[in-house]
Amino acid sequence: MGNATPSTSVPQRRLEDRIRNLCAQLAQEKDSLRSNVIMELQAAINEHNLRAANLASSATVARRPDLIVERRVGTPQPPE
Domain range holding 18? Predict the structure, then answer.
């Protein structure tokens, strides 16, 4: 998978899927091709971290913690 695309245009969900795919690919690659996959994976993880930091900063500056919404939360439990 040597054709890296600019990650700045990749929506969040697609970026997370790309990271998962690169991890799976890394587990299957031969040693000679691993360095390319590792470089792509590092770039994708860096982009993910940058997006998370930007979101956290925006929520903090705007004093709006509701800007940060976890999409992958389990079923809400009723209060006891």
Answer: 11-64
Task: Give the C-alpha distances (Å, rounded to integers) separating 11 from 17, 57, 74.
Answer: 10, 19, 22
For 63, left (φ over 0), alpha (ψ -120 to 50), or beta?
left
Q: Is the pTM of this model over 0.70?
A: no
Do 44 and 22 form a contact (C-beta atoms < 8 A)? yes
Q: What is the pLDDT of residues 8-30, one digit of tens each?
A: 455 667 888 999 999 999 999 88
Cβ count within 10 A of residue 13: 9
Residue 70 has φ and ψ, to the nearest 5°, of -80, 120
Report how far residue 2's alpha carbon sits from residue 22's, in angstroms, rounded to the nearest whole number: 11
Say how many domains are in the chain: 1
Write 58-63 long-range contacts (CB < 8 A, 24+): none
